[in-house]
Amino acid sequence: MPEIPIIQIENLNKTFGEGEGAVTALDNINLTVYQGEIFGIIGLSGAGKSTLVRCMNLLERPTAGKVLFDGRDITQLSDNELRKVRRDISMIFQSFNLLMQRTALENVCFPLELSGVPAKEARTRARELLATVGLSDKEKAYPSQLSGGQKQRVAIARALATNPKVILCDEATSALDPTTTQSILALLKELNQKLGVTIIIITHEMKVIEQICNRVAIIDNSRIEEIGPVDEVFRHPKSRAAKKLIFPKNELTEEISGNGKFLRLVFDGSQADRPIIANMVLQCGAPVSIAFANTEKIDGKMYGHMIIQLPANPEAERKILAYLDSENIGYEEEEYNA
Amino acid sequence: MLSEVFNAEMFALMGQGLLETLYMVLVSTALAYVLGLPVGMLLVVTDKDGIKPNPAINKTVGWIVNLLRSVPFLILLVAVMPLTRAIVGTTIGSTATIVPLVIASAPYVARMVENSVKEVDRGVIEAALSMGASTLEIVWKVLLPEAKPSLIMGAAISTTTILGYTTLAGFVGGGGLGTIAVNYGYYRSRTDIMMVMVVILIAIVQVIQEIGSLIARKSDKRIR
Question: Which of A57, A99, A101 sits opposite B130 (nearest CB)?
Answer without folding.
Answer: A57
